[in-house]
Design brief:
single chain, two-stranded antiparallel sheet, 277 residues, 74% helix
């Protein structure tokens, strides 16, 4: 196991422990999830602004970071209001400072400030779907993305022969995609067994069909998220969005797949609840 792989594993463990801590202390301090989502959103938007070379354009960055920080604490009504105000501010800044920036820069940053916090906010919405077991939903949504990534990384490293999208992400392989999907499905089922049979000792039922679907389609969607942000990185001529997380890169490098997977899990469990009341 090389040094990069060791860093990746250790960082993954730390992130998982952090996520578990947020889940465990949810009933004592429910705002912990909102705060975690807000911090991740702000750091992701900052990394993106830096990748675009906009970090010194305060008239774009400050309102963007403020919106990313506020949205995770809003319900649907106030979230819409926040984005209305943000839209007015950001396009007013474009008009006033049109000589210092371009519409393309504003459009890319604006779209990401809408997508990233909104997508991550579905983690908070997942918790509200089931008052008794909502944090289990949150755990599944995050793990569905991370497990797929870890499974694909090791499967690709060990068995990878055929490139998946060499022009976008040279290291991704078809074997890695298949391996990540299989591992994700198995882990999702194991999470269901642990939750139902171990944690609740059979008193709470789990929808294993929903977990299988999350493992199958969640892993595919996570790759879509990873590849989408890889295109952004290539267009910005950077390898990673940052170096905050050793072995992974920046916060956006670690949560790009969650940004795509979390909304899918939310939509699925609205119709196929994972656990009983």
């Amino acid at each position: 196991m090389n040094f990069t792989m060791v860093q990746r594993v250790l960082s993954g463990i730390v992130l998982t422990v952090f996520m578990i801590a947020v889940i465990v202390f949810d009933k004592i301090f429910p705002l912990a999830l909102n705060i975690a989502v807000a911090v991740i959103s702000v750091m992701a938007v900052h990394e993106l602004a830096s990748a675009l070379g906009l970090q010194n354009k305060w008239f774009l960055c400050l309102p963007s970071l403020a919106a990313a920080a506020i949205v995770p604490f809003c319900n649907e009504q106030f979230q819409f209001l926040t984005y209305c105000v943000y839209t007015l501010i950001i396009f007013s800044a474009l008009i006033v400072c049109h000589r210092e920036t371009t519409f393309k820069e504003v459009a890319v940053l604006y779209s990401m400030v809408v997508i990233i916090p909104c997508a991550l906010h579905t983690l908070v919405s997942l918790r509200e779907l089931n008052l008794s077991h909502g944090m289990f939903y949150v755990l599944i949504a995050v793990l569905a993305a991370w497990v797929a990534d870890v499974g694909a990384y090791f499967a690709g490293t060990l068995f990878g022969r055929h490139k998946l999208c060499p022009e976008i992400s040279p290291k991704k392989t078809v074997e890695g995609l298949v391996g990540g999907t299989v591992v994700d499905m198995v882990v999702m089922l194991l999470c269901g067994v642990w939750f139902s049979a171990v944690f609740y000792q059979g008193q709470v039922g789990v929808n294993y069909i929903a977990l299988l679907l999350i493992g199958l389609f969640g892993s595919l969607i996570s790759v879509l998220g990873d590849l989408s942000f890889s295109i952004i990185k290539r267009s910005c001529h950077i390898k990673d969005f940052g170096q905050v997380i050793p072995g992974h890169g920046g916060v956006l490098d670690r949560f790009d797949s969650v940004i795509f997977t979390a909304p899918f899990v939310y939509l699925l469990v609205m119709f196929l609840p994972l656990a009983g009341v």
